[in-house]
Structure formats: structure tokens, C-alpha cells
Write a structure and sequence with these properties.
By secondary structure, the chain is an alpha/beta fold. It is built from 7 helices and 11 strands. The strands form 2 sheets. Strands 3-2-1-4-7-6-8 form a 7-stranded mixed beta sheet, sandwiched between helices. It has a 4-stranded antiparallel beta sheet with strand order 5-11-10-9. α1 runs parallel beside α2 and α1 packs parallel to α7.
């Protein structure tokens, strides 16, 4: 990279303002390039919108948009990404899930330096999934060359979420069919991997290179991660009312731990001498 680039970071928020607050903190501490953040609130509740507005007002790099989803779930998320993507004017775009965070100093410069005539995208794949391939970056914490994405006419809309063609499936499909490559961060699922900093929280840790953590994704943040804990089979989870209360408390505690660990890594990383 011969000169300092400006990048655009896209975030879709749905009742996830506490995660967005953390991500903006990390971007301020760790980003090398000049950057702008485009955030689309996708129909959050009243209180979450108010908190999000207060957070964004404090950051001059942020532009906040509000829209209502015409469809829920994957479709609504994809609509918001397509909406934001039309507003990008920089050479590089970063797509960041609201409940994901970059953790490595100069993560953006390190990723841009890997983009070339063949490699046009670098970032976080999905955690191992029975119906979705995890050999190509998805939209959790990923940097891509804007021109190539537009040239390939990529939309983030799902085709069939139940068969794996979910939000962002065209990334892998169209890049590979047109002879381009992607670089994946190494992903660790803390349900099984207990040697990383998030060993006490269910989440994804991402490494690049393999010995340096670059990002983490809490997962299911807008619902307090409830879907991650359904493997609990004790009798108390068979009582719907108690189950809801327990999962709410557990989710709140897990988010608190995840944010605390993330901030500790961010603060430590920001003081490092960059090794790229």
C-alpha cells in the first residue's frame, strides 16, 4: 500500500447498540486507514434506537441511517447491506456484523496488503456449519475491494436460507466463478477451543496469521445469544417460562464477559508496535 487509503465500514444494527459501541471503540483504537462508518438501524426498539443515536453522535466518523425491514431475519439484514453498499465511494469496503469486533492493531492495513489481482476479499468465514461452506469469507468481519464487488453485481439477498444460500451467499459463488480468490481468517469455535482469550464465552475467535487474534464474533447478539444455548437439556429448560428467564440472564452475563475480554484485548493491542 503506497499511500493511506480511506475505507468504508458497513454495520447493520438490530437491537445491538452495546455491541456497536464496542466496535466503534475498537475502530478508533486500532484502525490505520482514514475511515467512515455507515450504520443502518434495521427497525430496532425505541430504546435501542435512542442509545444508538447517542453513541453515534460522539463519533464524527459515523453516519447513521434508519429504515424498517420489509422482511425479517436474513432477508431484512440483506436489504440493509444492499442499501448501505450503494452509498460506498471508497476503494475498499468492510462489512462488520453488529456483534463482531476487530481486535488487531492495523487490521485494515494488514488486510489491504493482501488484496491483489486475484485476491479480492479477506475476512471471517462462518463457524463450521452443515449446510453452509466455511472456505470463503462471509460478512462477519471482512474487507473487500469495492470495484470488484460492483463489477460482479453482487447482492446480499438470500436465495434459500434453509439450503445454505443465505445472506451473502453470492460472495463465494460469484468470486470463485469469475476466477477470484478469497483469504479466510482461521476460525476457532470456543464451544470446543479453550486455549484462546474467550474460553469462558461461546463465540467465534478469528486468527490471522494463525498465532494472532484479529477479530471475534459473539453471534446471535440481537437475541442475547439464546440460540447458542439450546443444547442445555436439564429439566429446567423444559419449562418454557423458566427457560426464557434463564436464557435472558445467561445471555446478559455472556455479553458482559465478551465485551470485557474484547476491551482488554483492544487496549493491549493498541499499545503494540505494529508487526506488519
Amino acid at each position: 500500500m503506497l499511500e493511506k487509503e480511506k475505507i468504508t465500514i458497513l454495520i447493520v444494527n438490530y437491537n445491538s447498540s452495546q455491541f456497536v459501541n464496542l466496535s466503534l471503540y475498537a475502530l478508533q483504537k486500532l484502525t490505520f486507514c482514514d475511515y467512515e462508518v455507515l450504520i443502518c438501524d434495521n427497525g430496532s426498539n425505541f430504546f435501542n434506537k435512542i442509545i444508538l443515536q447517542q453513541i453515534c453522535k460522539k463519533d464524527p466518523n459515523v453516519e447513521l441511517y434508519f429504515r424498517e425491514q420489509t422482511r425479517k431475519g436474513s432477508y431484512g439484514h440483506a436489504e440493509a447491506l444492499d442499501f448501505l453498499m450503494k452509498k460506498v465511494s471508497t476503494n475498499f469496503t468492510v462489512i462488520l456484523d453488529a456483534d463482531a469486533v476487530f481486535l488487531q492493531k492495523h487490521w485494515d492495513k494488514n488486510c489491504i496488503n493482501k488484496i491483489n489481482d486475484k485476491v479480492k476479499i479477506i475476512g471471517a468465514p462462518i463457524v463450521e456449519n452443515p449446510i453452509k461452506p466455511n472456505d470463503f469469507p462471509l460478512m462477519f468481519a471482512t474487507l473487500l475491494e469495492t470495484e470488484t464487488l460492483r463489477k460482479l453485481n453482487i447482492s446480499f439477498m438470500p436465495e434459500s436460507p434453509t439450503t445454505g444460500l443465505d445472506t451473502g451467499w453470492q460472495l463465494r459463488d460469484k468470486y470463485l466463478k469469475n476466477g477470484y480468490q478469497g483469504i479466510c481468517f482461521e476460525v476457532k469455535n470456543t464451544r470446543y477451543y479453550k486455549d484462546g482469550p474467550y474460553k469462558d464465552v461461546l463465540c467465534a475467535e478469528y486468527y490471522y496469521p494463525s498465532n494472532r487474534i484479529v477479530a471475534s464474533h459473539f453471534g446471535r447478539g440481537s437475541t442475547l445469544g439464546r440460540n447458542k444455548y439450546v443444547r442445555n437439556t436439564g429439566w429446567i429448560y423444559r419449562l418454557p417460562f423458566l427457560k426464557r428467564i434463564i436464557l435472558y440472564i445467561k445471555g446478559k452475563m455472556e455479553i458482559g464477559k465478551w465485551i470485557k475480554v474484547s476491551k482488554s484485548i483492544i487496549n493491549k493491542s493498541s499499545k503494540e508496535v505494529n508487526r506488519s
